[in-house]
Design goal:
heterodimer, A: mainly beta, seven-stranded mixed sheet, four-stranded antiparallel sheet, 11 strands, 49% strand, globular, B: mainly beta
């Protein structure tokens, strides 16, 4: 069974940093591109970042480019999101999700498996 | 950036009724790269439809998708109690990938 478990969320002050992790199991992690999608309270889904299966290629939404860094450790089946210079508008539940097919490049979806999310609150 | 406009914002229907949800793209996109998700309260999104009309594994056949130009439609033939949720379309044809704003299907 595919499982994705996010961790690392919490309360952080504006301008602060936080690192999210997503532990994957139940599938060959190194064969799948992965992504982070967030959802502000009461709002819709907002794509954040994606990474290829090997980790060699990454992509970001303009709203987080230069502040967030996506990475993965295929030896530990873990996806990460380093978030710096956090703003109030980054407050959201952050989901990690798996690409639908085992392919090397990040195609942008669809995403067939999602974690339960971790809440990030940016507030003073 | 491709904008996906979903309508209506809210659909009030009774169990057993037919639901028709719309997703309109601001530019032409290939139907190969259009997906639909369901999100129940407090849960993560769930992939329902990919390539505009293909059902994901385990999705009941009362869910169907179609495409016509820049217009995409998700149809639920007969609403079951568990279908009352928010539905999102998503495109991955052109970067950045984008989601629609969602349609809430609520019990009338």
């Amino acid at each position: 069974e595919v499982q994705l478990l996010e961790s690392g969320g919490g309360l952080v002050q504006p301008g602060g940093s936080l690192t999210l992790s997503c532990a994957a199991s139940g599938f060959p992690f190194s064969s799948y591109a992965m992504t982070w999608v967030r959802q502000a309270p009461g709002r819709g889904l907002d794509w954040v970042s994606g990474i290829s299966a090997s980790g060699s290629t990454t992509s970001y939404a303009d709203s987080v480019k230069g502040r967030f860094t996506i990475s993965r450790d295929n030896s530990k089946n873990t996806l990460n999101l380093q978030m710096n210079s956090l703003r109030a508008e980054d407050t959201a539940v952050y989901y990690c999700a798996r690409d639908f097919l085992p392919r090397l490049v990040f195609q942008g979806g669809p995403f067939d498996s999602w974690g339960q999310g971790t809440l990030v609150t940016v507030s003073s | 950036e491709i904008v996906l406009t979903q309508s209506p914002g809210t659909l009030s229907l009774s169990p057993g009724e037919r639901a028709t949800l719309s997703c309109r793209a601001s530019q032409t996109i290939s139907s190969t790269y259009l997906a639909w998700y369901q999100q129940r309260p407090g849960q993560a999104p769930r992939l329902l439809i990919f390539r505009a009309s293909s059902r994901a594994t385990g999705v009941p056949d009362r869910f169907s998708g179609s495409a016509s130009g820049t217009d995409f439609t998700l149809t639920i033939s007969r609403l079951e109690p568990e279908d009352f949720a928010v539905y999102y379309c998503q495109q991955s044809d052109k970067s950045p990938l984008t989601f629609g704003g969602g349609t809430k299907v609520e019990i009338k």
